Automatic annotation (TrEMBL), chain A:
Region of interest: Disordered: 1-21, 785-808
Protein name: Xanthine dehydrogenase family protein molybdopterin-binding subunit
InterPro entries: Ald_Oxase/Xan_DH_a/b, Ald_Oxase/Xan_DH_a/b_sf, Ald_Oxase/xanthine_DH-like, AldOxase/xan_DH_MoCoBD1, AldOxase/xan_DH_MoCoBD2, AldOxase/xan_DH_Mopterin-bd_sf
UniProt organism field: Actinomadura yumaensis
Keywords tagged on the record: Molybdenum, Oxidoreductase
Domain of life from the UniProt record: Bacteria
Coiled coil regions, renumbered to chain: none
Pfam family for this entry, one: Ald_Xan_dh_C
UniProtKB/TrEMBL annotation, chain B:
Top-rank lineage group of the source organism: Bacteria
InterPro entries found in the cross-reference section: 2Fe-2S-bd, 2Fe-2S-bd_dom_sf, 2Fe-2S_ferredoxin-like_sf, 2Fe-2S_ferredoxin-type, Beta-grasp_dom_sf, Diverse_Oxidoreductases
Protein name, UniProt field: (2Fe-2S)-binding protein
Domain 2Fe-2S ferredoxin-type: 2-78
Length: 808, 165
């Protein structure tokens, strides 16, 4: 029942139904929590109820006496062996990088930090025993507000560091002072990227199985390879004694791109106790303990000429690190540094980011990771510039964007955009959206003073994907490379096994990779099996995040397939008694040019290589090949998104009436998967604009710990999307692909907020803080902006039940 | 401990259970029916949805003892060729697949109530089931497709091509 292409038609580009689905729609899944080897013990963690406190005493003795409890440990009990959780992206030489014990020993610095654990025969017994652990806390001052945290005299998150500033990272190009001097238009804005909780549907889970002095760790992770290396580094267990498996993983969105304390503790407990040890989080503890995303205060200055042409842009960020630096925490806002200029030309650019410690859950990658924040800022500013100059927001963009004939183009942020066609994507989007018609309706509603106004939001975005050229990562002080690995095995029967270092968790690699291999090798799609997510099976990889899998891992597979064909060519020439240069390989078969009927299929060659009875002298009897691809450049998907929002000025309610997304992600391997990625990305970006916010109260308690309090959109909350594509191939890889995992999320947030603000401009509103809940919209209409230093008005409730207050 | 008798996917089980044991944990930990996943602890996400006597329930908010004498259908009990399963595959209505068992069972219950729902009715009807991957559009499409098929007499449906592995 798969939509297979016609026989002989290329697989790449066909809307193949996914091979992954069969097990997922029948419940024959392998989530980590499904696994239960004999003798498995269950772990429960006791977590700090305080945002910031000294641990005066922690005693787990009574918990150990409970029936069914095998062991209980406090942070102090494991202090000598638990090490410190790693940060692989120390962005400056003088970055402040505090220790981060997996379980707190002396001090807790965010509510939800683990302080002790119980190991018991089942999960109920483990949870019951948590009540018997005594911990005495001496409260310390919470540090909740970033602006206040960087002022002199602020209480400190880490007393020993003497400051709450982790680092300040600067990028400058061009003469910004000159750009600002005498500029006819200078816009200064302050935007807040509220804190978000990634909320993959599968909660985290880890199972560690000891086998002698070797350990197999199953984890709901995006990064089995990185996790293996990091676990070895943290615990001292040799890397070759560790096997990490990412079985079926239920979404990540960056939240499972992490080395979590619970993973380290599970490994240590399995070593101590010699039995399989499993921990699965509840959603409520996950909301406190899975790393959060976003959380920036952006101060922006844009200078432009009277005709709307941008002279320069100044970006000054405070980025909330939370209490500790986790795997790539400091680097996330830095990824945005190269994206604040968007698709626009300008002469001067200055970017400064200060990473700030607060007593909150650490932040790290969340879908888009730095680029949504940057895109939001520049796309909001473009609409502000249009309003300032009374220009159409499309027109002001057109005057500034890189024209299609200007590629490749070196941007003011130092990247080289290899390709793009912003004109084509925009034209297509305007047509699908019926832009002029909606503008006319908007004018009519304004004229009639309709209580429900119409707003149109524009977002013409780009992003950097295909993370990443290793040399660039090196120049940014990242601790690893950005290559990816693939290998291809041709089995004696001619069937094909593809092994990829990308580690899918919902993206559909098993289908897309098989499509690529089927085309390159000329074998049926069904003859290809894709293996991944297990360091014993796919020993080499850099895993899945940053829209990198296809643009880096897919290209590695492409190269490995070509090596197979090259090896096969030598054997085929020998079998056919022809010169290699006289062979042509099409449709999985080597033919001899000019000799009809002479030929050998790849399967025949594979069998000959397997038997090895008659191979050319010195030739290795194998077609198997591998390739490691390190990109020369990032890839740059782009697109134009248009949002029409109806805003009820009496209630503040926002209804998205239509949403058009035209994305250019280069060549497409599977349009079905691409469209699905766009849909899901849009949902998450729209959710940031309208619904989601992780809220802390003044004492540093997270008030959005459950799904009742943290508002994820349901089907009833989202509109039907209209999606289309233009196709400008990337020139940086032979597949011409760019990446699509994050595009929708990056583009949609500013499109929605621009639409809301556009609807409210007749009322003098120029901003609504996110999430734009009815109450916030309503308050914005009444001039209660909730900006700092304003009238002191609360910005209004965030999304869910627990979100009164919120970012401001 | 109370003794319960439950039929799950066509097999009868009799067990002593703690009164506080959740149905989902009984299914997963005691019966090994791990096709039904857990996504939250506040009954918001619906990942654990099963059918109890044909009606959808969130098995994280039902005690095992409440299932005594009842008939439970999990996603595993649908086999592989239920029109809803096929529609989810055909319309790419899943990505990571974690919400899928609950989404499929909730959708089946939705069609029991309303055999020909509009898109809006599908969206409202699935409000209690959260998906973080798909943006719901293809789920709505799939439910519509399954509804079309299930309204047709059995002999006019597409031949039973299994999705099962």
């Amino acid at each position: 029942m798969t939509a297979a292409p016609e026989a002989g038609a290329p697989e790449v580009g066909a809307p193949r139904r996914r091979s992954e689905d069969a097990r997922l729609v029948t419940g024959r899944t392998r989530w980590t929590d499904n696994m239960q080897p004999a003798g498995t013990l269950h772990v429960a963690f006791l977590r700090s109820p305080q945002a910031h406190a000294r641990i005066v005493r922690a005693d787990a003795e009574r918990a150990r006496e409970r029936p069914g409890v095998v062991a209980a440990f406090t942070g102090a009990d494991l202090a000598d062996e638990q090490g410190s959780l790693p940060c692989a992206w120390l962005v400056t030489d003088d970055i402040k990088h505090p220790d981060h014990p997996p379980m707190a020993v002396d001090e807790v610095r965010y509510a939800g930090e683990p302080v002790a654990c119980v190991v018991a025969r089942d999960r109920y017994a483990a949870f019951d025993a948590l009540e018997e652990i005594d911990v005495d806390y001496e409260p310390l001052a919470p540090v909740v507000d970033m602006d206040a945290a960087v002022e002199d005299g602020s209480p400190l998150v880490h007393e020993g560091l003497g400051t709450n500033k982790s680092y300040t990272w600067v990028f400058e190009n061009g003469d910004l002072d000159a750009a600002l001097r005498d500029a006819p238009v200078v816009l200064e804005r302050r935007y807040v990227q509220q804190r978000l909780i990634p909320t993959a549907m599968e909660p985290r889970s880890v199972l560690c199985v000891p086998e002698g002095d070797e350990f197999t760790l199953y984890s709901a992770t995006q990064i089995p390879h990185i996790l293996r290396l990091m676990l070895a580094t943290v615990t001292g267990i040799p890397e070759h004694r560790l096997r990490v498996v990412a079985p079926d993983v239920g979404g990540g969105f960056g939240s499972k791109l992490q080395v979590y304390g619970e993973e380290v503790i599970a490994l240590l407990l399995a070593r101590r106790l010699g039995r399989p040890v499993k921990w699965t989080e509840s959603r409520s503890e996950g909301n406190m303990a899975v790393h959060h995303g976003r959380d920036q205060i952006q101060r922006l200055t844009l200078a432009a000429d009277e005709d709307g042409r941008i002279r320069g842009l100044k970006v000054d960020l405070l980025a909330d690190m939370g209490a500790y630096l986790m795997l790539v925490t400091p680097g996330i806002p830095i990824l945005g540094a190269f994206m604040f200029n968007g698709i626009y030309k300008m002469d001067a650019y200055s970017f400064t980011c200060t990473g700030v410690f607060t007593t909150k859950t650490p932040t790290d990658a969340y879908r888009g990771a730095g680029r949504p924040e940057a895109t939001y800022a520049i796309e909001r500013l473009m609409d502000e510039l249009a309003a300032e100059l009374d220009l159409d927001p499309i027109e002001v963009r057109r005057r500034n964007w890189i024209a299609k004939e200007e590629f490749p183009y070196e941007t003011v942020a130092g990247l080289t955009y290899d390709s793009g066609n912003y004109e084509a994507a925009t034209e297509r989007a305007l047509a699908l959206f019926e832009y002029d018609k909606l503008r006319a309706e908007q004018a009519d509603r304004n004229e009639r003073r309709d209580p429900v106004r119409l707003g149109i939001g524009v977002s013409t975005f780009t992003e950097m994907c295909g993370i990443a050229p290793s040399r660039v990562l090196g120049s940014l002080s990242y601790g690893a490379g950005g290559w990816e690995h693939a290998s291809v095995r041709i089995l004696p029967s001619g069937k094909v096994e593809v092994v990829t270092g990308s580690s899918a968790h919902g993206q559909g690699h098993e289908t897309a990779w098989a499509q690529i291999a089927a085309d390159r090798l000329g074998v049926p799609f069904e003859d290809v099996r894709v293996l991944h997510g297990d360091t014993a099976i796919a020993p080499k990889g850099m895993d899945t995040y940053g829209s990198r899998s296809l643009a880096v891992g897919g290209v590695a597979l492409y190269a490995a397939c070509d090596k197979v064909v090259d090896k096969a060519r030598s054997i085929a020439a020998h079998l056919l008694e022809a010169a290699e240069q006289d062979l042509e390989f099409t449709g999985g078969r080597f033919g001899v040019r000019g000799v009809a009927g002479e030929g050998a299929t790849l399967q025949e060659v594979a069998l000959a290589a397997f038997a090895a009875h008659d191979l050319p002298d010195g030739l290795e009897p194998s077609l198997d090949s591998d390739a490691t691809f390190d990109p020369d450049n990032f890839s740059f998907p782009h697109g134009t998104h248009l949002c029409a929002a109806e805003v009820d000025t009496e209630t503040g309610m926002v209804r998205l009436r239509s949403y058009v997304a035209v994305d250019d992600v280069g060549k497409v391997v599977n349009p079905l998967i691409v469209e699905g990625q766009v849909h899901g990305g849009l949902a998450q970006g729209i959710a940031q604009a309208l619904y989601e916010e992780a809220v802390y109260d003044a004492e540093g308690n997270l008030t959005t710990t459950t799904m009742a309090d943290y508002l994820l959109p349901s089907a009833a909350d989202l509109p039907e999307f209209t999606t289309d594509r233009t196709e400008t191939p990337a020139t940086s890889n032979p597949l011409g692909v760019k990446g699509v995992g994050e595009a929708g999320t990056i583009a949609s947030t500013p499109a929605v907020v621009n639409a809301i603000v556009d609807a409210l401009r007749p009322f003098g509103v120029s901003d609504v803080p996110m999430p734009c809940t009815p109450e916030r919209v309503w308050r914005a209409l009444r001039g209660e902006r909730g900006e700092r230093g304003g009238e002191g008005a609360e910005p209004g409730a965030g999304g869910g039940l627990g979100s009164a207050g919120g970012a401001r | 401990m109370p003794r319960i008798r439950v039929e799950v996917d066509g097999t009868a089980y009799e067990d002593d259970v703690e009164p506080r044991l959740l149905l989902v944990h009984y299914l997963r930990d005691r019966l090994g029916k791990v096709g039904t996943p857990v996504g939250c602890d506040t009954t918001n996400c619906g990942a654990c949805t099963v059918l109890m006597d044909g009606l959808s329930v969130k098995s994280c908010s039902v005690l095992a003892v409440q299932a005594d004498g009842r008939d439970i259908t999990t996603v595993e009990g649908l086999g592989g060729d239920h029109p809803m399963q096929r529609a989810f595959h055909e319309d790419h209505a899943l990505q990571c697949g974690y919400c899928t068992p609950g989404m499929i069972l909730a959708s089946i219950d939705l069609l029991r109530d309303n055999a020909d729902p509009s898109d809006g009715e599908i969206r409202e009807g699935l409000e209690g089931n959260l998906c973080r991957c798909t943006g719901y559009q293809n789920i709505v499409r799939a439910v519509r497709r399954a509804a079309d098929e299930m309204r047709r007499p059995a002999d006019q449906r597409p031949a039973g091509q299994e999705v099962a592995p």
